[in-house]
Design a protein that fits this description.
Helix content is 0%, strand content 59%. With 115 residues, the protein is an all-beta fold.
Length: 115
């Protein structure tokens, strides 16, 4: 079993920055992709950013140029650096890791951007 612990969410003003972290722990044989999704009230969960084991990244259209995803394989940790935050970025952000051939989800961390 793999556990994911997220941190870094909070309240920030529009134009500000936040950095999310997600650390995977447990019995881990391999980690393929790591990523972040978000879900705003009344909306479907959507991809924010994803990074595979080779460092190839994918971003949702709404965050391109403002967010950067990275990973530290030695620490089994994925990061999401968010710049120029907008009120529409307000959502619960979920970490997602494909490890040991299974999908794992974090409990979610709230990001609130005030105008």
């Amino acid at each position: 079993q793999v556990q994911l612990v997220e941190s870094g969410g909070g309240l920030v003003q529009a134009g500000g920055s936040l950095r999310l972290s997600c650390a995977a722990s447990g019995i881990i044989f391999s980690i393929n992709r790591m990523g972040w999704y978000r879900q705003a009230p009344g909306k479907q969960r959507e991809l924010v950013a994803r990074i595979n084991s080779g460092g190839v990244t994918i971003y949702g259209d709404s965050v391109k140029g403002r967010f950067t995803i990275s990973r530290d394989n030695a620490k089994s940790t994925v990061y999401l650096q968010m710049y120029s935050l907008k009120p529409e970025d307000t959502a619960v952000y979920f970490c997602n890791v494909f490890a040991n051939l299974h999908d794992y989800w974090g409990q979610g961390t709230q990001v609130t951007v005030s105008s």
